[in-house]
Amino acid sequence: MPVTVVTGSASGIGAAVCKVLNAAGHRVIGIDRGAADTNVDIVADLSTPAGRQSAVDAVIERCSGVLDGLVCCAGVGVTAPSAGLILAVNYFGVTALVDGLSEALAKGKRPAALIIGSVASTQPGADSQPMVAAMLAGNEADARAQADVLGAPHVAYASSKYAVTRYARQKAVVWGARGMRLNVVAPGAVETPLHQASKEDPRFGEAVKKFVAPLGRAGQPDEIAAMVAFLQSDQAAFIHGSVMFVDGGMDAMVRPDRF
Ligand code: NAD
């Protein structure tokens, strides 16, 4: 039975991933903030270095140092209390888990990790924000300070997803030689509490509601989880370092000439 860690397991896409992986025969170790939530085996705040380390330590203990899968879903959106917090969870809360659990994954059976990115990573200008370089350099204090000074949560969100996708692409090249896979799933709008909060936000709600994919609807968490389950399975054994858009055609609409 493969042992797979899922972060952000209590809600939305993470909860759907837990359901589909459980059904596929995985032993799932869920990580989220609230002890009372469902699918939560390890309570940790992934926005802080101490919380991330406690999560890594608790996973190593529970899996006895041998892990087969990791799916990083935990994330916050544009309604987060601060722009810096968006980077703390969406970039540093992901990379600390991927790095911290890499040796346990190296001991696993056909190990595979996956990061939930976003179609927002392709937003024009996200790639050229100076905070991206600070994230990729691992300079959390600097990156958070830049995001807070800029005070534009939508830019921080897009930049955090761009940076974490670049991190994954770089890591994939190194991991391949060890037989460890790493992919990114980039969802478009998906009906979850995070998306609902964005739609209700007075600053961004109208823009979020107007940004409709060619398929004419938002996705369901199960539709993202199905791709995650496939990528984590042996059927996807040759898929590595890829960014899979599951977005109802949003990326094709916005960037028809880039692929
Ligand atoms: P959600 O709010 O339903 O779930 C996110 C989960 O992450 C929650 O359970 C939350 O408690 C957890 N989390 C947040 N901060 C945390 C922290 N500091 N420590 C531990 N856990 C924390 O949202 P969702 O839409 O399911 O989001 C899942 C992922 O999908 C996120 O990375 C998000 O950026 C990404 N995404 C979502 C959409 C969308 O439209 N819903 C689109 C693209 C990408």
Structure in words:
There is one protein chain. The protein has 259 residues and is α/β, with parallel strands linked by helices. It has a single domain (3-188, 220-246), classed as 3-Layer(aba) Sandwich (Rossmann fold), CATH 3.40.50.720. It has eleven helices and seven strands. It has helices spanning 12-23, 49-63, 83-100, 102-106, 130-136, 140-150, 153-176, 193-200, 205-210, 221-231, 250-254, and strands spanning 3-7, 27-32, 42-43, 69-72, 112-116, 181-187, 243-246. Strands 3-2-1-4-5-6-7 form a seven-stranded parallel beta sheet, with helices on both faces. β1, α1 (12-23) and β2 form a beta-alpha-beta unit. The model has no long low-confidence stretch (mean pLDDT 97). Nicotinamide-adenine-dinucleotide (NAD) binds next to α1, α3 and α8.
Structure described in brief:
InterPro entries: NAD(P)-bd_dom_sf, SDR_fam. This protein has helices at 12-23, 49-63, 83-100, 102-106, 130-136, 140-150, 153-176, 193-200, 205-210, 221-231, 250-254, and strands at residues 3-7, 27-32, 42-43, 69-72, 112-116, 181-187, 243-246.
CATH architecture: 3-Layer(aba) Sandwich
Strand content: 5-15%
Q: What are the segments in which pLDDT stays under 50 over at least 5 consecutive residues?
A: none
The general outline is globular
Using only CA atoms, what is the Rg?
A: 17 Å
By DSSP, the count of extended strands is 7
- The helix/strand series, from N terminus to C terminus, equals EHEEHEHHEHHHEHHHEH
Class by SSE composition: alpha/beta
State the major sheet. 7 strands, parallel
CATH superfamily: NAD(P)-binding Rossmann-like Domain
CATH-defined topology: Rossmann fold
The average pLDDT is 97
Number of helices: 11
Spatial arrangement of strands, main beta sheet:
3-2-1-4-5-6-7
Helix-residue proportion: 40-55%
Q: How many domains in all?
A: 1
Pfam families: adh_short (PF00106), adh_short_C2 (PF13561)
Organism: Aromatoleum anaerobium
Protein name: SDR family oxidoreductase
